Amino acid sequence: MKKFALHPQELKTGEYISFDNLVELYNLDKENCIGWYDNDFETYVGLNANDYIHLYPREEIDYLTYLDELLGRDAVKVKVKEKIDPYLLVDILGDEWRIEFGNKDTHEALGNLCGLCDFSSKKIVVDDFSAIEKEATTIENIKEFINKVIRHEIIHAYLIESGLGDCCSWAVNEEMVDWIAKQFPKMLKTFKQADCI
User: Fold this and answer.
1) I need a surface site. Which of 24, 56, 59, 154 has the fewest CB within 10 A?
2) Is the pTM of this model over 0.70?
């Protein structure tokens, strides 16, 4: 069972619905809930948004009826197909970056790319192969390939946040970035064996 991410917010009426209010209104076990404060990303950075059922304050609605309907839809969705999480929020050198998953239909900028790193919006977009899942592909382990693409784009983001995105040719060299992305798991394993991390 997924945990609940509760979003305390102010209603249009001016009434503020707190975390504790939401726990009570939805009749939830507080131990199965976290507070997800939209204006304070440090409270949820590094968490996978799709690991939680997100609940918000609502006006003129029966909270329990809504929750029953939501859980019913969520249960059906999970049974139909296990999908890659729609987005992740990560901390890169103190800034929040959003990693989104989709395809060229949902993210036109992807085009024929497997991933992209947009410094202007601090967003990474990765192709989840959903548009070609029924077609022939030479990639057998798609999950592993997607993980490598994520690492590749995260490395780009780190270089950008370090101020190397515009003034340093090696920092935007795709071969260099891809080498680090591909070899990093092995490097991390070696670092751990050497007890230097």
Assistant:
1) 59
2) no
